[in-house]
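Q: Predict the assembly, please.
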Amino acid sequence: MSKENDLLASVSDISTESEFFSPVPDGYKKGKTRYVFVTGTVMSGLGKGIFSSCLAKLMQDKGLKVAPIKLEGYLNIDSGTLNPFRHGEVFVLDDGMECDMDLGTYERMLDMDLTHVNFATSGQIFSSVLNKERHGDYLGRDVQMIPHVTGEVKLKLRQLAVQSDADIVFVEIGGTVGDLENAYFIEAMRELAYEEGPNSSCFVALTYILEPSTLGEQKSKAAQLGIKQLMQCGIQPDIIACRASNPVSEKARQKISVYSSVPLKRVVSLPDSASIYMIPAMLRENSLDFEVIRLLKIEDRINLRHERKTWGRWCDFTDKMGAVNREVTIGITGKYTSVRDSYASIINALEHAGIALGCEVKIKWIETTNIIDETAVEGLSDVDGIIVPGGFGTRGAEGKIACIKYARENNLPYLGLCFGFQMAVIEFARNICGLVKANSTEIEPDCSEPVIDILPEQKKIEGLGGNMRLGGRDIELKPDTIAWELFGKAKTVRMRFRHRYEVDPRYIETLEKGGLVFSGKAPQQPIMQILELPQHPFFIGTQSHPCLTSRPLRPQPMFVGLVAAAMQRRYGQEKIPDPVEANRKVMRTTS
Ligand code: GLN
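A: Predicted assembly structure:
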């Protein structure tokens, strides 16, 4: 390694002699991967993940390879134990990583399956540093925030660069600049940009322009102070994205430009948008895509023909969004009903299916805690379909079962997801198979008919972190079933799981005799993964979370089936093809 490159040393070359500590993974090619860092100022919740994923999408459209990563300040190792009520849904990746819901935004926007390398928390970083310390990897040095902890962050980013072979790694830093818990992430990116050299990195600061109703004008002071804080960390932003409820005035942009030494054309207005799918177009209108390309000096890597094709497909999708001419209402039961973020993927999956079918999907939230048999009818009389989503614990479970009974008896389209699948089994066992005591041992540990019981592999597990049956698994489909038809007669499909309980195999025969069809199961294991009722217009449940793999241009077939069935219920048979037919059509036009 040359003298001036002393700053970087391969992991095995780190010595005690030097104050420089910046381990680099084997195979790392300096200059191959460029970095875009996205930070937030003024307040959290500005949509850093949305911005970063949309910008990454524009680069991907140009034929560039992108890899996103979210750096989270909290000390949890993953998001598995976080309460969705506080933090939004736990998004599960194919490799089983339980992570922040922003990773869902990246997967949807980039139509890409991500893994644990795309998500890092302070918990992971510190645990890795402490393990190395115990292992003696720091060669007698005192282990410090700088350079060791920042070194670990940089190592993670460069490992991602090697593994993904990306042209650009998009790094989103959680929280806002000035938070104690993300300060070392910001320091790490400053160091990394310095080590990588000029044109290696691009810093984007998202900020917020206030518009107090008492003043009736936009105020940029909070934004200026926020950006100043970033500059005090030694970071000169290259782009400032001004979030606001209305388009940001030229005057406010000018003030920010003067204050931050960022040219006016790179201080852009990003007002609230009705749909996140319109944001890529907004970024293009501001030429942010080419600004980034120029800042990173990678003009020679882009493929404009590729861009014309992919952008054309995207515009077909956004055009369809504006052309919906029907409407259905889907009821969603759940105890986190006050926080839409807890069900982000389901809302997205319904939207994707609706757009593909030319139908707006309205959602009615149904709090089931107080529902008993008769009252279910009231809440469900005006919905065209119902989803019982994933859940844990006893609260509201009987209300969900009552809703499912209503859906089954009244031909109301039903989609049960994970817990909703389990509750459908209980309802069927009780009311059709005569097992009146049927329940899940999660709800009633000593129940005499445990149709839903803990998975054998889960019995010996202690603690709660990262140990459910997690991640992508293949599902074997039974020929000539609705599920098989919905998935285009595929032999197997892959979906993501996050559960501890399952249908107790001892009850399968009884349930099937009663008329319940298990149309999807785990290969070589008696784990039931999809159920359906053949006589019902649309009654289907899955132990998995199909919403996690729905993408704007590839809507998930079970959701397409549900929305089509809901449309059929509202508008009548002659106008809408049956759910399977509708899904086939969607698959033909979107794949
Ligand atoms: N609580 C159920 C289980 O652990 C369902 C989990 C879920 O809905 N994600 O099996």
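The radius of gyration is 26 Å. Residues 9 and 23 are 5 Å apart (CA to CA).
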